[in-house]
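ENTRY TYPE: protein
WANTED: fold as tokens:
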Amino acid sequence: MQNFSAAVSVPSAPRAESIDDILEALQALATYGAEYFSVTLCGLVDTLVSFTKQQLRRMTWQKVDLVLVVDWMNSVLESFRMELEQGTNDGSLIKLRCTVDDPDFRQILIHIQQRQIADLQEALAAAQSKRSPALPKPSLVTQSHDNGQRRQNRVVKGEHSIPADVYAALPVEDGKRLCLRFLSTAGCKANNGKQCLSFNRAHFVPAQLDPIVREFIGKRFGGLKPEHNSL
């Protein structure tokens, strides 16, 4: 590529098929950064490379979860940019986020674990239903109660699980992802205050919402508040 005109569109980055694809991209960034980045930023990229080699490659990742890893790394680099922009420090401490104990990274692991548990429960229920003999249908009243209970359980469980593509598309401010309830008609449990009860969530109004996030809010929380319908 030799034409660096702003009119030339940048090709879309391919989706990672494995954690090694992410590692190769980081190593390419490190090579480029050695020529053009500051010493501090080079150190941050090198730390991401080491973290991927020593920690992430030892874990088992499904392809659908790799987008979450990439999004987390982008948030780390974005935190560095914000530190320099705000002038709070030189960004040298951002590399301390490159650990499995980082709150945002732990949220990814929790999300994956919850999905795996849900998949396992669904598989066990399907296997059990195949083995169990057919039972007489319960009375209308009992069946109605059971259906209501199942719906209630699904709602309670659903509040703690967000699909991977929706999670990756959530707007981020100050390193924290948007609280979906804050913009919704359902409202946040923090009574729409400035600070969310969840440490990893933030209350703010983004410039725009990804369509999949808007659709998810509509399905899960009854849609956006009237004042946010333009997002």
